[in-house]
Amino acid sequence: MVSIAKVLLAVLGVAVVVVLIAVPTVIFLKEEEGSNMRTFTLFDVFNYTLKPASYNMKWISDYEYLHKETDGSIFLYNVNTNMFEEFLNRDKFIARDASDYQLSADRRYVAFMSNYNKVWRHSFTASYSLYDRQSDKDITPSDIPDVVQYFAWAPTGNKLAYVWDNNVYLKTSPESPREQITFNGEPNKILNGIPDWVYEEEMFSSNRGVWWSPGGKYLAYAEFNDTLVHNIEYSWFGEDQYPSTISIPYPKAGTPNPVVKLFVVDTDNTTIVTEVVVPASFSKLEHYLASVTWVTDNRIAVQWLKRQQNHLILQIYDISGSSRNPVEHLELTSTGWIGRVC
Ligand SMILES: *[C@@H]1O[C@H](CO)[C@@H](O)[C@H](O)[C@H]1NC(C)=O
Ligand SMILES: *[C@@H]1O[C@H](CO)[C@@H](O)[C@H](O)[C@H]1NC(C)=O
Ligand SMILES: *[C@@H]1O[C@H](CO)[C@@H](O)[C@H](O)[C@H]1NC(C)=O
């Protein structure tokens, strides 16, 4: 005979199981019903609604950085003292319709950037207005045209360089008049201070073709001659009734590459421009300017690469001496393929 106690125990066991299943289910269903959380789709990823958390910062010393707050103001943070203070009010950005800024190394001047227009992967044009933090005044006229292709403060002080209409300009201070360094710039033919399409995309991965020496005495700049490079053309279906034709010098295998030259201008006397000459063994061959790095304020390290990309020369030139002779030379050859030495 089955005892009453055993039956009761079995019933209790079944009840416990039912409760264990039912309660979480009810809670779960309830949550789903009452929640205002929405599911997400791939579109949320593509339009950047869903993205990893990030934090924007520009280091301006070993222990200080600038951070753009969500309201658009810039704050200066000191990581030694954990103190922070407002550095640029958001109204300064709103007044100039500025989307970004660059601070001079001496922290006195701000170049506010507006009218950003994307060109290729890295390149863009923009307008820059100069603001003096000390006097709380704009520098007018700034002497900087509206459609600038590249802008860079010197690594010390407040000299600046920019590229406009494919020519390089510099100002030894925001208040000084601009000095034009190159004169032969021409769209899709001669580009000074900015890379052409192929150098931007395949060599530098950057929109930069000027390099300040660390102390700001010299500015190196590249000149690209794309005159003989064949063009690729395509239709651009923009806003107008008829599409326009975009034409880009685009070398393919067996056709001419851009011809590159490297120059250095002395900012103390901008009529003194020195060509940093490619090593003789490459001068008659098609070659690339692979990288430019200042070693000191007088010495510049340049990597030149044969078009075949099986032979690279890294050469250090002394700019201050009268001869501009190479002072160090390293050659790499390969039966395979060499990229840049980083
Ligand atoms: C992004 O896409 C999602 C899904 O289509 C949409 O709900 C959301 O509002 C979009 N966000 C923005 C900022 O466009
Ligand atoms: C650019 O290359 C073309 C074709 O070789 C040449 O005629 C022209 O003089 C070059 N321009 C410069 C500034 O070197
Ligand atoms: C700049 O350099 C040129 C060429 O060396 C020289 O003739 C000129 O006097 C210099 N100008 C100044 C202001 O030093």
UniProtKB/TrEMBL annotation:
Segment forming the signal sequence: none
Superkingdom: Eukaryota
Segments passing through the bilayer: 7-29
Keywords in alphabetical order: Membrane, Transmembrane, Transmembrane helix
Entry keyword Cell cycle: no
Keyword flag Transmembrane helix: yes
SUPFAM superfamilies: DPP6 N-terminal domain-like (SSF82171)
Record-annotated Dipeptidylpeptidase IV N-terminal domain positions: 104-338
Name of the protein: Dipeptidylpeptidase IV N-terminal domain-containing protein
